[in-house]
Design goal:
With 179 residues, the chain is mainly alpha-helical. The protein has six helices and three strands.
């Protein structure tokens, strides 16, 4: 027998927020998805380009830790980004097994192209939610991340920051050395 009544928060589940997150994510990723398709890339490429641009010199091991994916999953995406000249891979200066990742000018331009519509969408949403404190939104989104992984998104202390666009330091949480 089919169930004809919609779910409305049974057992304390907040379906409204869940649904809003689904819709927000769908639209937040839709513009970059169209751009990525023109390059023959997907969301995995976007994530790699994003984090390598935000933290140039990030090792492959650190990137794996941030993305929570397998080496095999990353290998194909990384190879494409290297082959197309968006990222370069450099041997680590202290440990020759480490591979550090850096964006090229082409990789930086791609991230800026992908981030522009997302940034506009965020700015529009923040303007619409004018009564809401941006810090509260940031706290909410950070609280959505597993507690043991939050240090990956923590910024350095305020006195170390030179601008609001200072790269995030993901190295604090990297456990693996060889990459």
């Amino acid at each position: 027998m089919p169930i004809r009544s919609p779910l409305n928060g049974e057992e304390g589940i907040d379906f409204t927020i869940i649904e809003l997150l689904f819709f927000a994510y769908r639209d937040f990723t839709s513009d970059p998805d169209q751009i990525l398709a023109e390059y023959g890339f997907g969301r995995a490429h976007h994530r790699v380009v994003h984090f390598v641009n935000r933290r140039p010199g990030l090792t492959v091991a650190e990137l794996l830790d941030v993305l929570k994916i397998t080496k095999q999953s990353l290998a194909r995406v990384l190879k494409q980004l290297i082959d197309t000249g968006h990222i370069i891979q450099v041997q680590g200066p202290r440990d020759r097994r480490q591979r550090e990742l850096y964006p090229t000018a082409k990789g930086r331009a791609l991230l800026m192209e992908l981030a522009a519509p997302q940034s506009r969408r965020i700015a529009d949403a923040l303007a619409e939610a004018a009564t809401v404190d941006r810090a509260a939104i940031e706290r909410f989104l950070k609280a959505m991340v597993d507690p043991e992984l939050r240090e990956q998104i923590d910024r350095r202390s305020k006195d170390e920051l030179t601008s609001k666009d200072e790269p995030l330091d993901y190295r604090q949480s990297g456990k693996r050395e060889a990459g």
